[in-house]
Amino acid sequence: MDQWIQNTLEQFGVMGVAFLMLIENIFPPIPSEVVMPWAGYSVSQGDHSLLAVVAAGSIGSFLGALLWYGVGLWIGKDRLSRWVDHHGAWLTISPKDIDRVDQWFDSWGGWAVLICRLIPGLRTLISLPAGFSNMSFLPFAIYTAIGTVAWTALLASLGWWLGNNYADLTGPLGWVSTAVVVGLFVWWLFRLLSQKRWSKNAANAR
To answer: In this protein, which residues make up the domain named VTT (predicted)?
Structure first.
């Protein structure tokens, strides 16, 4: 995948940066930790300006975040709660969990969006609950834009600074992203097994 990303960036330049960052927010396995450092490396080689690659990456990432926010709005809390009530067992969530997320976003939505936009693996996920919790569009857009620009500028600047050694950055950041995804999976598996154990104990107690 890394080679495909580099070929896309070499062929399409800053438009390729915007496209890949858009796709990264729709299909998270395409990592911004590879896209933006490579774009920063191209700046060090005189191919593009730092402002151009940061702007392109931020626009693509912002549009991807808006897409998932729109999906969350379209689904809505009530529809999602009904679906979870019937099918949420294997996800280890319940309608009460949806209510808690909704209340949490009422209090901390903006900060949650901002911080999660800076965390690999959670950057995409945060837009969906922001949508179904009916977080107001303007705060969502502002916090998303701030977090997005900060993340893309950081990665591009590091790639630019490292120059030919930019690959030294992608490895550690890739591990961070993988660790977050694995951690979420382990958390879900733990909840699933605990839920099944509780159900079994409840059935035996009858």
So the answer is: 30-159
